[in-house]
Every structure is written in structure tokens, then in C-alpha cells.
Design goal:
Blueprint lengths: L2 H24 L7 E2 L5 E4 L2 E11 L4 H4 L14 E12 L5 E2 L4 E4 L5 E2 L17 E2 L4 E2 L5 H4 L5 E8 L8 E5 L8 E5 L2
Parallel strand pairs: 1-12
Antiparallel strand pairs: 2-3, 3-4, 4-9, 4-10, 5-8, 6-7, 6-11, 11-12
Length: 188
């Protein structure tokens, strides 16, 4: 390699090394706080969240019945439907952090829907706020929810049929100490 070519590559290599050092020094990967679709990571405080899947639930389906265990709320009326969001989270820091338990779904008309309470002692898929160790995930790697095909904790909503006309739906993730919620546009 010529001295001239070597001299031009040296600053580029040095910049790349500094960038890599800077990224590993902070120990945290930064994600946006808004995602236009599921599958992307969003930061909400020190936790990164990812919507694994969202969909309507069919209470008559054998597969879906397990997600409705531990629900004491009445069944949807003929003008309502069950809608589920499966969520995954990762603590990006070097200290214990607690995941949020504050979520809502908003339609384009500004209507807000809140999660239906699920008894986590009965339903192992239910999302519950957890203290997650450094670099740990929720659901925990050895949990029923992590082995399920969705690989996420369950947030269950009862939505009106009008939501089909008021799409897209947006999941809002309210993290403690965060002025504005992080958001994910949901598939429906």
C-alpha cells in the first residue's frame, strides 16, 4: 500500500474506532421514541420496548382462549372486540430498571382504550410491571410468555367496532419520568 493511500485511510479508521468506542462506552443503544410499525424498538425511559404482535382475539379459538384466562371483565358486546398487544422489553442499562404498567391505545379520533386487568396468577402471559436486571428482558427468558409463539407479555383491550374506521391505532407507552409517551403504530 502506498504511503499516500495509507495516509488517507488513517483518519477514516481513527474516526471509526472513536465511534465504536463511544457506542460501547455508553453501554446503551438509543432507539427512537416513535415507531411507524410493529417490530421496531422504541425507548421509553431506560427500557426499550418492542411490539411483537397485535391482533384481534377470537374467544372461540382454542389457541386464543388461553389469552383470556384470568380476565374478570365481561365479554365484549356485539359492537366490541378483544384486541391483544404482545410486548417485549429490554433493560438497556447497567442497573435494575422497572418496566412500565401504563399503556393505552388511541385511534385517529382521539378515543383512548386502556388495558383490561388480567390476573397474572391465572394467566402466565399477562404483562405485569417487573424489575428487570441489567441487559435483562421481559418476559424473562424462562417464562411461559417467552416460550409462546408471540414471545411477548399480553396487553388485552376491549375495543369498539368503530376502530376499523378509525385506523391506524397507536399504542402509547407511558414511562415514569417521561413527559410524552413513546408510541407504536399497530397493525389491525
Amino acid at each position: 500500500m502506498s504511503a499516500r493511500l495509507h495516509a488517507r485511510r488513517l483518519p477514516i479508521l481513527a474516526a471509526a474506532a472513536l465511534l465504536a468506542l463511544g457506542l460501547t462506552a455508553c453501554g446503551q443503544i438509543s432507539h427512537p421514541t416513535t415507531a411507524d410499525n410493529e417490530g421496531l424498538y422504541v425507548d421509553a425511559g431506560p427500557i426499550a420496548y418492542q411490539v411483537q404482535l397485535s391482533r384481534e382475539l377470537n374467544p372461540y379459538s382454542v389457541e386464543d382462549r388461553k389469552y383470556l384466562s384470568g380476565v374478570s371483565t365481561s365479554s365484549p358486546t356485539p359492537t366490541e372486540q378483544w384486541f391483544v398487544v404482545f410486548l417485549w422489553a429490554k433493560n438497556q442499562t447497567h442497573s435494575n430498571q422497572t418496566t412500565t404498567n401504563s399503556f393505552d391505545v388511541v385511534d385517529t379520533q382521539g378515543n383512548k382504550y386502556y388495558p383490561v386487568p388480567i390476573n397474572s396468577a391465572v394467566n402466565p402471559f399477562a404483562w405485569t410491571s417487573q424489575t428487570v436486571p441489567p441487559k435483562g428482558t421481559e418476559p424473562a427468558p424462562d417464562s411461559a410468555a417467552s416460550f409462546d409463539p408471540t414471545q411477548g407479555g399480553e396487553l388485552l383491550f376491549k375495543l369498539g367496532d368503530s376502530i376499523s374506521s378509525n385506523r391506524p391505532l397507536t399504542l402509547e407507552i407511558h414511562a415514569p419520568g417521561q413527559a410524552n409517551p413513546s408510541t407504536v403504530s399497530l397493525d389491525l
